[in-house]
Specification:
By secondary structure, the chain is an alpha/beta fold. It is 38% helix and 20% strand. Helix 11 links the parallel strand 17 and strand 18. The radius of gyration is 25 Å and the shape is globular.
């Protein structure tokens, strides 16, 4: 993948839009400016999560080509305040686009505007443009046929990826971990593919169709019939981008096509100018729901970006807590975490009286890297200095106790960082598939097998008792070879360990169990949160025994099984259970450290 860089002109700030406080990024034009600005309209739900890195890449490429660019979160999404559960979100989303357009005009001093929208973001951009009376240009990347078509695709996409779709009696739908309320779904179903013919929305339109399943050509005909200057092209990278959250996947050819089309307008001014600054003092923090969130940059060169949630205090006062939880990147997800779980969890922790920092590791989200980023970097010890920098930052704000939390690959970073930094008070490892990576080692086959997403062996044992499983087996719907290969690798690993014990060979002191014991002796607590049927359960029980039995007498170790959920704790009950378990864990540690419950601190802060 291409490296993710930060330009000096990339400026984060909060803005009020659509009834929420939304995090925005302004990318100032480099060199000779164009006479038109670009507003990036996000996709929604899982698609927005997958496309986050591409949006950042496109924004920076356009800024380098002379365009002032603004990207932002819709209300109740990403880093914005609120949640998806707050009634009909569609009017809030289109209202936020209009507000962002006004903010961009205030920054640049001119009103000529282009909108860029992906998938449902394309439909929202069209509606907002019509409500504004039209804009100069609109880029529609893989636009939905209509809002009704999008709602149908929610279920289909979730089924294809093996994720669950949950429908509630009140008409809400949870798809790919993102909630769509009944009022939001109703509004989406009424959303047309194009605004009514009497509404002007753009003079020029560029349609970038999907490279895997082109389907936007009928839209070209409709636009031409309306007299809109329309250009059509296929954009490479869409299919790969939507497989899972990654970074910077749009290719250079598509970027060039986009830039050239937007650059059809003449340059503004007589020559290059310095990157413009915001004409107002950027707001970097906001208060809501009993907490305070701040957009923070820290580390060497202030290259690391994150959002810090703290208990709300009076203006100018320090936070009441001295305990912080650091939430570490999961796979290619940026700081909000898969299905926005880190955003929700951080706010819940802050409301309970603790600090929570969710930040991007280098190459993810808005933290740059000067090197080529690979997904294998997620299992690299090279990330421990960045975690140390985050601890330094929080220590400078008065925190003294630090808990590292990570799901899957994030738990690897948490574990390695805990070993490397004695300031770590505790680690919360969630659905870990790997805590040590050993190259050129007999454990290699076992490690590789654990990286294949299947289910736990206990799950497969229970499935053998279900008659419908055998019907699916006869229809060829079960990956027998893959499941067998993984269970065989687990069996071999257990057999090798048993043989080593039988031959009285010494147990390696660098194995996972020994290292956790050393951490525990140092006073660093370990909490394992494991979904009952997750494949990571086999890995953890291999090292720590069934339900953590090898360390059952260790007061600094605890293993908790989470029922009826998946690898990233998609559903609300699981997330609520995780939040409650984590707060209970922190409260217990706080009582041991101070001799009093945290509520005493909260009451003192509110006095």
């Amino acid at each position: 993948m291409n490296p993710v860089h930060t330009q000096a002109a990339d400026q984060p700030f909060y803005m009020e839009a659509g009834g929420s406080t939304c995090l925005a990024w302004f990318h100032a034009a480099q060199g000779q400016p164009r006479g038109i600005s670009v507003l990036m309209c996000q996709a929604v739900g899982y698609e927005a999560l997958c496309a986050y890195g591409a949006y950042r890449q496109i924004s920076q490429a356009l800024a380098q080509a002379g365009f002032d660019v603004l990207r932002f979160d819709y209300p109740g999404t990403g880093d914005a305040s609120g949640s998806e559960a707050e009634g009909d979100r569609v009017p809030d989303w289109t209202a936020s686009i209009r507000t962002a357009a006004q903010t961009l005009a205030q920054i640049t001093g001119h009103s000529r505007l282009a909108l860029f929208g992906l998938r449902l973001g394309a439909q929202l951009a069209l509606q907002a443009a019509a409500q504004m009376g039209g804009v100069e240009r609109i880029v529609l990347w893989a636009p939905c046929k209509s809002g009704r078509a999008f709602t149908r695709e929610l279920r289909a996409a979730a089924t294809q990826r093996g994720a669950r779709v949950q429908a509630t009696p009140d008409g809400n739908v949870l798809s790919m971990g993102f909630l769509y309320t009944a009022p939001t779904l109703s509004a989406l179903q009424a959303l047309p593919g194009l605004p009514p013919p009497e509404q002007v929305f753009a003079r020029h339109v560029l349609i970038l169709d999907r490279d895997d399943l082109p389907q936007a050509k009928p839209l070209v005909v409709q636009l031409n019939d309306r007299g809109v200057d329309t250009q059509y092209a296929l954009a490479a990278g869409y299919a790969a981008m939507m497989q899972e959250p990654r970074q910077t996947l749009i290719d250079s050819q598509s970027l060039t096509l986009l830039t050239d089309w937007l650059a059809a307008d003449p340059l503004a001014g007589d020559g290059p100018v310095a990157a413009r600054s915001l004409p107002f003092a950027p707001v970097r923090e906001h208060r809501f729901d009993g907490l305070r969130e701040s957009a923070v940059q820290f580390g060497p060169g202030s290259d690391l970006f994150g959002v810090l949630a703290e208990p709300d205090t009076q203006a100018g006062e320090a936070p009441a807590c001295d305990t912080a939880v650091l939430m570490l990147s999961v796979g290619g997800n940026y700081r909000v975490g898969p299905n926005r779980i880190y955003t929700r969890l951080a706010r819940s922790i802050a409301q309970a009286g603790y600090c929570a920092l969710r930040f991007d590791l280098p190459g993810l989200g808005d933290s740059p890297t000067q090197n080529e980023f690979s997904m294998r970097d997620l299992y690299s010890k090279d990330t421990t200095p960045q975690v140390r920098a985050a601890i330094d930052f929080l220590s400078g704000r008065g925190c003294r106790h630090f808990y590292l939390l990570g799901i899957c690959s994030g738990s690897f970073v948490a574990f390695q960082s805990a070993l490397a930094d004695e300031r770590v008070t505790g680690q919360v490892l969630m659905n870990s598939r790997l805590l040590e990576w050993r190259q050129a080692n007999p454990d290699g086959q076992w490690q590789e097998a654990m990286q294949q997403p299947y289910k736990s062996s206990s799950f497969y044992r229970r499935q053998l008792l279900r008659p419908e499983v055998y019907r699916r087996l006869l229809r060829g719907e079960i990956d027998v070879r893959g499941i067998s290969r993984r269970l065989y690798a687990l069996l071999v690993a257990r057999w090798q360990r048993g043989l080593r014990k039988l031959l009285a060979r010494p147990v390696p002191q660098d194995d996972v169990l020994s290292k956790v014991k050393r951490l525990s002796a140092r006073g660093t607590a370990t909490l394992l949160l494991v979904t009952e049927d997750d494949d990571g359960r086999d890995y953890l029980e291999f090292h720590f025994g069934r339900r953590g039995s090898y360390l059952r007498d260790d007061p600094n170790f605890k293993m908790v099984l989470v029922q009826n959920s998946d690898h990233t704790f998609t559903d609300d009950p699981a997330q609520a259970f995780v939040a409650a378990t984590l707060k209970s864990h922190l409260d217990h540690a706080h009582r041991l450290q101070t001799g009093r419950p945290l509520s005493d601190n909260l009451q003192a802060a509110g006095a």
